[in-house]
Amino acid sequence: MRLLRSTDLALRLLMRLAVAGDASPTTREVAGDMDVPYTHAAKVVAELQHMGLVDARRGRGGGLTLTAKGRTASVGALVRTFEGDGDVVDCEGATPCPLNSACRLRGALRRAQEAFFAALDPLTVADMVAEPTGPLLLGISRGPGAE
User: Fold this and answer.
1) Disulfide-capable partner of 54 in 48, 92, 106, 139 (CB 3.0 to 4.6 Å)?
2) Quick one: three-class SS letters along the chain?
3) Neighbours of 131 (CB within 10 A)
4) Are 66 and 18 spatial neighbours (Cβ–Cβ below 8 Å)?
5) CB atoms < 10 A from the CB of 49, how many?
6) Number of neighbouring beta carbons within 10 Å of residue 98
7) Which of 77, 93, 75 is nearest to 85 (CA)?
8) What span, in angstroms and rounded, lies between the C-alpha atoms of 49 and 114?
9) How big is the CA angle at 8 (ends 50 and 108), to the nearest 5 degrees?
10) pLDDT mean across residues, the chain
11) Average pLDDT over residues 138-143
12) What mean pLDDT comes out for the span 37-61?
């Protein structure tokens, strides 16, 4: 299973904000740190803000901050939200699978997908930035040439 780019970016953005301390990086700064297009980062920030995980302030002195809810958010719940309810494979697509009525693979893949989410459920964003990840992430997020 491969995560969508938006799911990956949401997780990395939350982790980045979790180690930001008093700093409030802008969406543009975070997009630059992560080497992703600003428009893509802005869409993910908007979704995270809608979920109550990130506060985004505009204008001078603005920026992004992680909310208390964001710090304790379940990684599994976050991945479910961004990935959606879809099956790992599309059995009902433009050309439906001829095995659909008697397939055992679809159920096995669904159980595997749920096990994947269940393994992530107990993890929080705060857990993801615990030693040794947090200090390393902080060093990376300062960007080249930062002191």
Assistant:
1) 48
2) CCCCHHHHHHHHHHHHHHCCCCCCCCHHHHHHHHCCCHHHHHHHHHHHHHCCCEEEECCCCCEEEECHHHHCCEHHHHHHHHHCCCCCCCCCCCCCCCCHHHCCHHHHHHHHHHHHHHHHCCCEHHHHCCCCHHHHHHHHHCCCCCC
3) 7
4) yes
5) 15
6) 8
7) 77
8) 26
9) 105
10) 86
11) 58
12) 92
Does the pLDDT of residue 40 top 90, yes or no? yes
Provide CB contacts within 8 A for 88, sequence distance 6+. Answer: 1, 109, 110, 112, 113
Q: Which residue has the tokens 């008697």?
A: 102
**51 φ, ψ (degrees, to nearest 5):** -80, -10
Cis geometry, peptide bond prior to residue 135 (ω within 30 degrees of 0): no
Q: How far apart are CA 76 and CA 121, in angstroms?
A: 4
Backbone φ and ψ for 87, nearest 5 degrees, come out as -75, 160
**The pair of three-digit structure tokens given for residue 43, joined into one six-digit string:** 């869409």
Q: How far is CA 56 from CA 32, 48, 62, in A?
A: 17, 10, 7
User: For the whole model, what pTM was predicted?
Assistant: 0.82
